[in-house]
Amino acid sequence: xxxxxxxxxxxxxxxxxxxxxxxxxxxxxxxxxxxxxxxxxxxxxxxxxxxxxxxxxxxxxxxxxxxxxxxxxxxxxxxxxxxxxxxxxxxxxxxxxxxxxxxxxxxxxxxxxxxxxxxxxxxxxxxxxxxxxxxxxxxxxxxxxxxxxxxxxxxxxxxxxxxxxxxxxxxxxxxxxxxxxxxxxxxxxxxxxxxxxxxxxxxxxxxxxxxxxxxxxxxxxxxxxxxxxxxxxxxxxxxxxxxxxxxxxxxxxxxxxxxxxxxxxxxxxxxxxxxxxxxxxx
Length: 282
Fold this sequence. Notes:
Layout: E1 2-7, E2 10-15, E3 18-22, E4 29-30, E5 38-40, E6 56-58, H1 69-74, E7 80-84, H2 89-97, E8 101-105, E9 111-113, E10 116-122, E11 135-141, E12 148-151, H3 159-164, E13 174-178, H4 210-220, E14 230-234, E15 238-239, H5 253-262, E16 269-270, E17 277-279
Parallel strand pairs: 3-6, 6-7, 7-8, 12-13, 13-14, 14-16
Antiparallel strand pairs: 1-2, 1-17, 2-3, 4-5, 5-15, 9-10, 10-11, 11-12
């Protein structure tokens, strides 16, 4: 199974004769209004004309970095797009207006796309409110379930999945996690500025330590995931258009993964650059 990192949280998963896109953002910016566009970072050029034929697209939730109208409008009409029953109805309507084949899925079914099987999971109730509609995905070979991985971005990992590992679900070969820290430099406006005095307001960059971020996404967040699982870090891949401080602090996932590997016995953390391909051998 090959995982191509497209940027921010977008992935192309290729397996045998099957290609699926996960929350594709293929342009240089993202944003569903002409007034605000978020620049993708690091910058990259996606040659859509040379993309393999896409068998299906999966959109986890409606946030701007996962549901990008500009991208979805350049996909071939009739593209099969899966969204969950939790999605706002306007998302389905917009996709149908673009001419796509929209399929609503529940969280009790398995979706088969040629050589790939996808089991969707809903976010646990402890997940923060604005991420409560996130869908997570268990991606596996239709015949060999041990060839599998889990996409766990933007929400607490599904309790159903964690509790089923080793019994109902095989150990994951890989797991995708998100660096959503969005730490801003001192005195800069950030996502958490208006949430004081919540504990998360510590992400001001003034007191926050990168090692704490590593502990958060690689230790605390992955509690219950087997230690041998390969960890792929994505996220933090855009620039705030309302500020001029550039990339968020601790947004270089390649560097974070290298530091994590230096602090580990087994080097199993990867923070790919856009365009980088990770091949997972059975």
